[in-house]
Design a protein that fits this description.
The protein has helices at residues 7-10, 25-35, 76-93, 142-145, 152-158, 193-217, and strands at residues 47-53, 64-70, 96-100, 110-111, 114-124, 146-147, 170-175, 178-184, 222-231, 236-244. The protein has 245 residues and is α+β, with helices and mostly antiparallel strands. It has 2 domains: 7-129, NADH Oxidase, CATH 3.40.109; 138-244, putative nitroreductase (tm1586), domain 2 (NADH Oxidase, 3-Layer(aba) Sandwich). Strands 1, 2, 3, 4 and 5 form a 5-stranded antiparallel beta sheet that branches. The longest helix is centred in the last third of the chain and has 25 residues, at 193-217.
Length: 245
């Protein structure tokens, strides 16, 4: 995965855009080129990105939309969040704002045999439209999401990841040699339960993207093991385990 660590502190969901600013043709080309550099979480899932003008979607925000298509396989939503978030952070680096837009739809619900999964709306921004202070984040206290006395600084930064309605479904258990990642199965939200589960599975992929960027930035090597949603106690679903080398 490309080093986008510094962008996790700058990134912000942008919902209002300055109509006087516009994404250039050169920037559109760079975004298109970046799609081919995105790392997948699960290599055998076929995926595709597509940039479209907003009149090809139901989005009313920004200038363009980035659509994500995928095979429907085990953990495809986890993979979608992991891959899309890399693009989100790359856009941040370019001062292009993005907003995950779960309720918006694409006119083309299928592309080359792949199903439309989710999109975000994008538009050109000023540097000061993004965050410049970690205090601007609204996140759960570390004591809510972490059990264990190891890697708290890693989890605190990874926990800056965005999530549907800021639900932050990740729960973490650490030891000297491992970081175990769980999803809280039932969250309080105005999003209906079935839809929330869909978005929270994407959220977990976003979190894994952030977590790996933080681990890489600290020079912590690991082996990742994706777990196919095994339920454990306390309403948690085990998603992934990192063995620290």
């Amino acid at each position: 995965m490309r080093d986008l660590y510094n962008m996790i502190f700058k990134r912000k969901s942008i919902r209002k855009f300055d109509k006087k600013l516009s994404i250039s043709d050169e920037e559109l080309i760079k975004i298109q080129e970046e799609f081919g550099k995105v790392s997948s979480l699960i290599g055998d899932i076929k995926t595709e990105f597509k940039i479209v003008s907003n009149d090809e979607t139901t989005s009313k925000r920004g200038e363009y939309s980035i659509l994500f298509y995928s095979e429907d396989k085990d953990n495809y939503l986890l993979n979608a969040g992991y891959m899309m978030e890399q693009v989100d952070l790359f856009l941040t680096e370019m001062n292009i704002g993005a907003c995950w837009y779960g309720m918006a739809k694409a006119k083309d619900i299928e592309k080359d045999g792949l199903e439309f999964v989710i999109m975000f709306s994008i538009g050109k921004c000023n540097e000061d439209d993004f965050r410049n202070d970690i205090k601007e984040f609204k996140r759960k206290d570390i004591s809510v999401i972490l059990k264990g006395d190891k890697y708290d600084d890693v989890i605190k930064n990874a926990g800056l990841a965005p999530s549907a309605c800021n639900s932050q479904p990740w729960r973490i258990l650490t030891s000297e040699n491992s970081i175990e990642v769980f999803k809280k199965d039932k969250m309080k939200s105005f999003i209906p339960g079935t839809n929330l589960s869909f978005y929270n599975n994407i959220d977990m992929g976003i979190f894994l993207c952030f977590l790996e960027l933080v681990l890489n930035s600290k020079g912590i090597s690991f082996d990742r093991n994706i777990i196919n949603g095994s339920k454990v106690s306390d309403g948690l679903v085990k998603i992934c385990e990192y063995k620290i080398n």
